[in-house]
Design goal:
By secondary structure, this protein is of the alpha+beta class. It contains four helices and seven strands; from the N terminus they run βαββααββαββ. α2 runs antiparallel to α4.
């Protein structure tokens, strides 16, 4: 009926059965580009901004890691996973934008693309929340999967 793996023969949603898959090392790296604007970025010192809510990037990284761990609670067809590692980095790209990278590693039967994508989104949303008192002009411009290894295929975008 459908090429979608999350739809059964009757057209209803289902969770994919991964019981016959082999356990392999799998990684995924996602990237988000976020416009903060000169007003926000000008407040950073040594790649960090401290607000009344605390250190922005450090807090956002912790939130992103939490987002990775809670992906299956947010996205209905994602399997709960025992994550081996999460590494989130935030770089100031220029005088207006930042780049957020989230790499997730697992040894399991299913990939971690959704976890990496969730991680960069939650990181950016936390930065927005912590900096909105300075500016409401921030924009999460682009979120994409840039690399996936393990499973049936490897991808590098």
């Amino acid at each position: 009926m459908s090429n979608f793996t999350h739809i059964n023969k009757k057209g209803n949603p289902k969770m994919v059965n991964v019981s016959d898959k082999k356990i392999t090392k799998r990684t995924a790296m996602a990237k988000a580009t976020m416009f903060l604007g000169k007003e926000v970025i000008s407040n950073f010192t040594n790649n960090e901004l401290n607000t009344k809510k605390g250190p922005v990037f450090q807090t956002a990284i912790i939130a992103g890691i939490q987002g990775v761990k809670k992906t299956s609670e947010l996205i209905p067809m994602c399997h709960p996973l025992l994550i081996n590692a999460v590494d989130i980095t935030i770089n100031i790209a220029d005088d207006e934008c930042i780049e957020v990278f989230c790499k997730v590693t697992i040894e399991g039967k299913t990939g971690v693309e959704m976890e990496a994508l969730t991680g960069v989104n939650i990181t950016c949303l936390t930065i927005y929340d912590m900096c909105k008192s300075i500016s409401l002009q921030m924009v999460i411009k682009e979120v994409k999967l840039i690399e996936k290894t393990g499973g049936k295929s490897d991808i590098k975008n």
